[in-house]
Structures are given as structure tokens and as C-alpha cells.
Amino acid sequence: LQSTSMSSSAGAVSTALVPFGGGTAAEGDDDASNSLFSTRRPKDLVAGASSGLKSVTKGVLAGAAGLVAAPVVGAQQDGLRGFVTGLGVGVAAAVTLPVAGTAVGIAQIARGIVNTGDAIIQSQQGKVWDQEKREWYFYSLRQEAMDVLVGGDADGGAGVNSEGDGGGGGGGGGSGGKGKRNVADRELYDALGVEPSASAADIKKAYYKLARQLHPDKNPGNPTAKQEFQRVGEAYQVLSNDELRAKYDSKGKDAINQQQFLDSTTFFAILFGSEQFEMLIGELQLAMLFAMEGSSISEKQLAWSQRKREVLCAVGLADMLAQYVAGDEAEFEADMHALADRLASASFGDVLLHTIGSAYENKADEYISERLIDAVTSNVAKLRSHGRAATSAMKAAKAGVRTYQVFKSIEKRLDGIDDEAKGKSMAEEIERTGAMALMLESAWRVSVIDIERTISHVCDKVLTDASVEPPQRRRRALGLKLLGQIFQEHGSSDAEMDFKAQLQAAMATVEESMRAKAFEHDDATAARHPERTSS
């Protein structure tokens, strides 16, 4: 009984620790502290102190949790006798775990002190710290670009092709056994590579596979990729909608002439001007999630996409700074002013420039001061970066709460209204409360966090790239600082941003884009049916 109680108590302690960052004991491991306290090699004194403080905190929290949880678990298993036994286990945990946490914490701090000298030397040599392997190494942007851009996808080259070599057509072919389906037009089915008899699941699977393969980010050298990507999106919009699919099957594309298409990725790019900024920040994560439209994607695939995004941006940034590195400073400055002036005219362009420019200048300051062993300036730059990240997170949280509260109040007001009237009333309430502008602000605040984190990693890759000599890396840092200052000069802070006005301007651009698409659709229809034009 005591053994069982102790085992259960350890599980309860581990469970209680989850919100505080603790782990659970490995299966069959009698020493819960093995998974509770981190004993990995710390990079330096700062990392050692951080690890040590966490260990001390976890020990105290684990002891307190054990003191509460063990008697409860014991009572549940064996009544009063179990309670007494659990209380003994809990008291033991309350004493031993804080002591163990303190011991591990002191050891981690000591290890951090010992490793600090080596960290300074390794950093001065241009090496970077590998968080996974816990060792120093020379980073090469060129090598990572080869590994990521040529070496395959997250699953070692399998990527989306791991779903099967048959492509989208395989999905449709698999459902062909359900019987042939006579349709007036096959064009949209052919665009997705499925048969008209394909199920909704087959169509969805084919779309997501093709969308990932044809995404413009994955085909930078293919000028037709964007058109193909949009064509697949338009086909899916029709075939994934039962009503539109029925119309299309019976009368072909003529039956959906009035349907105007604008894929969600394009909408997001127009809204935030991210298409023009793609060379600097890549595809925003929200834009990617918009494009997925409910498709599942693993954490490993997300991490791989983010890594690829950062590498592409790092390669582009290094190329952009090459002019300054080569000594052509005046022309670089003129070119960057022209670029910033052009980007500022995009939707959200001025605030995007200011966000990117601030991050560029801060990372440059951090790098330059570290190489000069200027601890004060380096730490100020790091604190500024952490402060900006915390501020961005706080703003995103506040915007999210406001948006949630407004939509909950709308839902409460419309409670009890019949479905027919609810649609109109919902639109009126959204307009009255400015809910869409709040949603836009929330999306922007989340995107700022994404942008700042991405740029931080991109700059690290460019400035620690050991495939170029240290003097060139310093020149990159100086050019990056100048570029950041130029972007900030042409940009503006989002502190006073009018999200309602931004939304109206973005929607006007969206409407213009949809009109252009409608004209293209009409032209295509006229080309297919010239007799209608003549009549």
C-alpha cells in the first residue's frame, strides 16, 4: 500500500507541477526529480542562474503539491489508513524536494559560472550555442540554406508527398468505385486532380496537398505558381460548397458566373500588405493558417515551415546588405530609402516598417556591443528587445480580450432572435460595436509578435554566419543598423493607429481586387462563348 501511495503521490506531484513548467516522471523511474529538475549543461552564468532558480522554485512547489496531494490520493485509495500513509509521503516530499531543488539549483549556477569564460571565448570566435545539443558550433547560413531549401521537407524530404504518389488524382481515383457521375464540366475537378465522383474528404485532401505544393513561397522561380495556386483555390471554393457544386455539376461554370473568388491568403496579404513585405518577413503565420482553412498540420511541420521562412528571409537580407558590405554605402542608403518609401504605401506599410526597423537596429546594437565586449550596451539592447516582446504580448492579450468581450455581448443581445432575423441583426451589431476593427487589431497584434520573433532569428542567422569573415559580419551589422534607422524614419509607431480607418482602406482594396477578378472571369467566359458577345 505504501509503495502504491508513493507512486500515486509522485504522479499527483508531477501533475500539479504542469502549470508551473514541471515535467512528469518517466515511466518506471522511481526518482521523480530526474524529470522535475533540469541538469542540462548551461551556456553561461545567466543560463545557469535561470536554470538554478527554476529548479529551486520547482522543488518548493513540488514539495507543497506533494504535501497536499499525497494524503488525498491515499484517502481515495485506502480511506483513513491511506490518508495517514499519504500524509507521511507528503511530509517527506515537502522536505526532500525543496532540498533537492536547491542542491540542483546551486550546482547549475556553479556550472554556469564555470562555463561563462568559455562562452565569452567561443562567442568572440564567432560560434553560436546549440540549444538542443548544448554545445558551441560555427553556424553557416549557406549550409543551412542548402539543407532547408534543397534538402527536403520536415519529414526528411517526404513532406506532402508522404500522402501518396498519386497526387490529388489519387484521392479522386480512390472514390471512383462509387460509380461514375455525369457532370456538365470537368474543369474544376481536373484542377484538383479528382474525379467528379470524389467525396468531400477526397476533394479536401487533394486541395490541401496541391495548395502546399503550389504555394508561391515554395516556387519562387515559377512565375505561373501564383495563378495555379489561385486556380486550385477557386476550384476548391466551388467544389467544397454543396450548393455551388450542384450548380456547377448541372450547368458548368456558367452557373457560377456571378461567384467572385478571393482566396483567404490573398485577403490577408491585402489586409496587412504582407505580400510586398514578404522578402523581409516571409509569410505571416496567421496568413498560413488562414490558407489552411481547418486542415490539420503537425507541430513538426509548423516548425519546419517557420525555419524555412527564416532561412529564406536571412538569405534575402544578406543579399540586401551585400551592397553595404562591399563599401557602396551611399548607393545602399539611397536604394533603401527608395525601398522604404515604396513599402510605406502598402496597407499597414508604415507600422510594418517601424516594427521591422526597430528590430533590425536593436539586433545590430546587440551584435556590435557583444563583439566590443561592451556588456552594458549589449544588455541594454537585450533588455530593450525583451521589453518590446513583453509589450507586444500584453497588447495582443488586451486586444484579444476586448474582441472576445464585444462578440460575447453581441451574442447575448441576439439571444432568442430567430435565425432569419439574426443574420441581419448580427451585421448591424458588428457595425455598431466596431467588432471587425477590434478583430483586425487582434490579428495585427498577434502578427507583430510573429514578425518580431522571426526577424530576431533572421538577424541572428545573418550576423553569426561563419561562412563569411568576421569583418564582413561586422559590416553586415553596421548596414543592418542603418537599414533599421531608415525603415523607422519612413515608418510610424502603431500606438495611435486607427484600425477602423485601416479596415475601411483594406476592404476598398479587397473590393477592387474582386472586381478585377470578376472582369477576368467575364473575359474568360466571353472567350469560351464568343456567340454571346456578338449577340
Fold and architecture overview:
The chain has 535 residues and is mainly alpha-helical. The protein is built from 21 helices and 2 strands. A two-stranded antiparallel sheet has the order 1-2. The longest helix is centred in the N-terminal third of the chain and has 80 residues, at 45-124. Residues 1-33 and 156-178 have low confidence and may be disordered.
Distance between the termini: 92 Å
Structural class category: mainly alpha
Widest beta sheet: strand line-up: 1-2
Mean pLDDT: 76
Q: Mind summarizing the main beta sheet?
A: 2 strands, antiparallel
Strand content: under 5%
Helical stretch tally: 21
Rg, rounded, reads: 29 Å
Number of distinct beta strands:
2
The H/E string reads HHHEEHHHHHHHHHHHHHHHHHH
How would the global form be characterised? globular
Helix content: over 70%
Low-confidence stretches: 1-33, 156-178
In short:
By secondary structure, the protein is an all-alpha fold.
